[in-house]
Amino acid sequence: MQKTNEKPSLETTTLWDFPKQNYGDNPHGDNKFNGVTPAFIIWNLIQRYTKEGDLVIDPMCGSGTTIDVCKEENRKVIGYDIAPHRKDIIKNDARKIPLEDNSTDFVFIDSPYSDNVKYSSDPRCIGKISCEKEEFFVALDMVAREIHRILKPTKVMAWLIGDQCKQKKFIPVGFRLYEMLTKYFVPIDLVCISRHNQTSNTPIWHERARRFNFYLRGFKYLLIMKK
Ligand SMILES: C[S@@+](CC[C@H](N)C(=O)[O-])C[C@H]1O[C@@H](n2cnc3c(N)ncnc32)[C@H](O)[C@@H]1O
């Protein structure tokens, strides 16, 4: 992965297109972790919605990208995960976060969006439930309620999520989650994150897409909402 000394700049458009997975000289999370969040997304949110000293929570922090970005930017941070990838991540189920009500300044979460990635063998991993089952959305609803409970009034959370299109069956996971979140939060923005290094951006996939008549989808939604 190409590294650069440059700090990213704040984008003013609502379509964020970033060629670099990472920035700076220090690692953020683990690029080999399946489903790692590009650090730039978290950096951008932290600049917009928090200030130095604020407490940031990531209830599903995977390889720890949120922790690394927040420490570098002098934010307090706690990263939880059902299957901690390293020692500074606390083992916890996101459906019950061990924090007091109204204690948190900002929440970032990049959750599973179906059972497409094997994260761990822990049976409580939400990534074991297909988004074709209602049970999947019930689990995300419990996480959303917890995020709402721990956030201070008027503070912001951002949730990264993708859709599923498998064997010609399309599940609009992003829109389902958006609708669900509006029960608890006030929407601020819905950002489309497109990725330059998509694994489907190859001649083989382009040919398959033409032959079987489907779109190559290379984006996720970033849902930004306020308590
Ligand atoms: C897309 S990954 C997060 C990637 C992370 N932001 C990073 O940059 O490495 C989703 C994470 O959700 C975690 N997860 C799944 N179910 C969970 C649950 N019930 N409670 C907490 N974490 C969970 C998985 O273990 C996985 O690490």
Mean residue pLDDT: 88
Distance between the termini: 37 Å
Strand content: 25-35%
Uncertain spans: 17-21
Describe the structure.
By secondary structure, the protein is of the alpha/beta class. It has one domain (15-226): Vaccinia Virus protein VP39 (Rossmann fold), CATH 3.40.50. The chain is 24% helix and 26% strand. The chain is built from five helices and ten strands. It has helices at residues 39-49, 65-72, 134-150, 173-181, 203-212; strands spanning 15-18, 55-58, 76-81, 90-91, 104-110, 151-161, 164-166, 169-171, 186-195, 219-226. The strands form two sheets. It has an eight-stranded mixed β-sheet. Helix 3 (134-150) crosses helix 4. The longest helix is centred in the middle third of the chain and has 17 residues, at 134-150. The protein is globular. Residues 17-21 have low confidence and may be disordered. S-adenosylmethionine (SAM) binds at residues 29, 33, 35-37, 59-63, 65, 81-83, 93-95, 110-112, 119-120, 124-127.
Task: Note the main attributes of this structure.
globular, binds S-adenosylmethionine, single chain, 227 residues, two-stranded antiparallel sheet, eight-stranded mixed beta sheet, 10 strands, alpha/beta, 5 helices, Rossmann fold
Q: What is the topology?
A:
Elements: E1 15-18, H1 39-49, E2 55-58, H2 65-72, E3 76-81, E4 90-91, E5 104-110, H3 134-150, E6 151-161, E7 164-166, E8 169-171, H4 173-181, E9 186-195, H5 203-212, E10 219-226
Parallel strand pairs: 1-9, 2-3, 2-5, 3-4, 5-6
Antiparallel strand pairs: 6-10, 7-8, 9-10
The chain binds S-adenosylmethionine.
The site of S-adenosylmethionine has 26 residues, from loops.
